Amino acid sequence: MTGATESPRLGGPALRLTVLVGENDRCHHRPLYSEIVHRARAAGLAGASVFRGVEGFGASSMVHTARLLSLSEDLPVAVVIVDTEDRVRAFLPELAELEVEGLATLERCEVLRYAGRTGGPATGPGPGPGEAGA
């Protein structure tokens, strides 16, 4: 059984941090989204992914799009980080240190299955129809 204070690597309650930035935002000569992911990894967080948007707008109300014939190259990017609430909240000062000019949201979620690199046991629903078990 997993407890609320254990890592969601084995499933259970978690907190999802989503940071929305521009594709061209930089930090120390590298893309800001990459800096966030590397800092999350260094902090030992369970996982982080970057998703590139095809269209969006933010505080400036300027629409950025990936459509053909568009001149926009600064597309929206979402960095999504998931771990226990304590671990994600402990990471927030790292984010503040980067002086991110974007939107950050926190949402409670539940990790259903994540075995990590060890291939160890995972909790949550078992295999669905047509899926093999571990």
Strand order in the largest sheet: 4-7-1-8
Tell me the Rg in angstroms: 17 Å
Overall residue-averaged pLDDT value: 78
Percent of residues in helical segments?
Answer: 10-25%
Assign an overall shape. globular
Q: How would you classify the helix and strand content by structural class?
A: alpha+beta
Q: Strand count, sense and closure of the main sheet?
A: 4 strands, antiparallel
> Low-confidence runs (pLDDT<50, min 5 residues)?
1-5, 120-134
Oligomer: single chain
Could you tell me the number of beta strands?
8
Q: What fraction of the residues are assigned to beta strands by DSSP?
A: 25-35%
Order of helices and strands: EEEHEEEEHE
The DSSP helix count reads: 2
The CA-CA distance between the termini, in Å, is: 18 Å
Please supply descriptive tags for the structure shown above.
134 residues; disordered C terminus; 2 helices; single chain; globular; 4-stranded antiparallel β-sheet; alpha+beta
Give an account of the 3D structure.
The chain is α+β, with helices and mostly antiparallel strands. The protein contains 2 helices and 8 strands, in the order βββαββββαβ. The strands form 3 sheets. The chain has a 4-stranded antiparallel beta sheet with strand order 4-7-1-8. It has a two-stranded antiparallel sheet with strand order 2-3. It has a two-stranded antiparallel sheet with strand order 5-6. A hairpin with a 7-residue loop joins strand 5 and strand 6. The radius of gyration is 17 Å and the shape is globular. The N terminus and C terminus are likely disordered.
